[in-house]
Amino acid sequence: MKNKLTMGIIIVLLGMAFLLGAAREVQAVDEDGNFVIVIDPGHGGSDSGAVAGGLREDYVNFEIAYYLKQELDQYEGVYTYLTRYNTCPSIYDRVEFAKERKADLFISVHNDSGASSATGTASWVTQDNTQIEYYQKAAEVANQILYRISNLGLRNNGVKTRSGQANEWYDSGVVQDYYGVIRYAQRVKMRSLLVEHCYISNAYDRNFINTKEGIIKLAKADAQGIVEAYQLRLRGQGTTPVKSLAIDPIELNLEMTAEDPQPVAYLNALFNPSNASNQEADWYSTNPEIVRIYGNKIRGLREGEATIKAISRNNQRMATCKVIVTKPKVALKDLTVDKEMQIVEINQTGDILVNFNPENCDDKTLYWESSNPDVVRIWNGHFRGLKEGESIITATSRASGKKVSCKVMVKDPNKAYVEDVLTEQEEYTIQVDEAIDIKYSYIPNNSINAEFYWDSSNSEIIRVFGNRVRGLKLGTADLIIKTLDGTFEKRIKVTVKPKR
Questions:
Q1: Which own/partner pairs from 437-440 qualify as long-range (CB within 8 Å, at least 24 positions apart)?
Q2: Predicted model pTM
Q3: Average pLDDT estimate for 250-277
């Protein structure tokens, strides 16, 4: 093979780089949520793989994998690893390597051997098609790769599956796959595929992969297939990739009633970061006879359970929501809270009481969330103030996903806050078209939150600009004075009389 000496040097150098730097990169990827692709050059070490015409499969596999890594490293938020350099890890260890790096995609690079007339490229994926998020996307990646390889003049032999031992099954009940890398990857819930690029035993194919140009073309075809399937974007284009995905709510009970025999709800896909460039997702139901889904709209059809899966088109992040469909004796209609705002000091606790309507409804399960958990921690309606600030506490009912909220303000006991606003009069009387300035002070005078919002309870009777009040027509209204942080509010009665 041409350039074998150069390639050997590259292998040694890359191997050293791997030993020195890979561990640090893995931890960074775990924390930052980058898209991780593990590329597995088949065979290696003393295992040459197929050999024909003086060409070793393990060398060709590594070169394709090496240039594939170079291509993919150009994309935003993508981290790539090779499972081997000049060694030959076991099939199990290759998948374990990918698992430790939380790989989003595992691609095993191979070349085939057979009769001299056998030619072309093929790809193998799991036969467990019950797992949509693994089988379907792996098949899509494989098809994209094969399409691009066929454009190079090589025969497309298609995407294939192959059964392993008839007495060995996945948890889904499907017979496990024949190829070990696919089998182990499927066991640990990792998308995987194996690509047989060419037949080394075929003269035409062998000549194609016996040049650096041919190797690079295959690597680019692999890369473009992955890029298209996962909607990746080149670095430096100002795009922000999706790092994680969640569904709100995470569990939902659709209650079937006589008035609403096929209840409908909408699920929200929450992208992280919130400014991700591509916020499109594909939605699936594991049991469409119980819960049907159209985009993010779900409809309960009959009693039972289903899992709704949302998969982002960029980076294929996945989130799930468990949906239960029931026929309750008493369905939930509404939720309210006893207080819409509570104030506590740091380390003080409190409770948010939720009222169910009707009170004897069947499903009273609630999920709690704090918009600022560093300020307020919540568990089962009981909360604790952790530091100065505010947080919105939201309770979401499992029954139909109804929500109620309570604002919790946390004060620092070592700081002063407005306790009262003092005015010259407790009530004011003004005439139509008369404007007066309300003189005021506040206590304590060293309050840190002494910024006020002034308002009218009836803007047709009195108009308010800061602390200036103007009478507009006959009647009575309240002048409302409250701090901007919402911790204090006072109302003063203002009566408007006719002009003299």
A1: 437/467, 437/468, 437/469, 438/467, 438/468, 438/469, 438/479, 438/492, 439/467, 440/467, 440/481
A2: 0.73
A3: 95
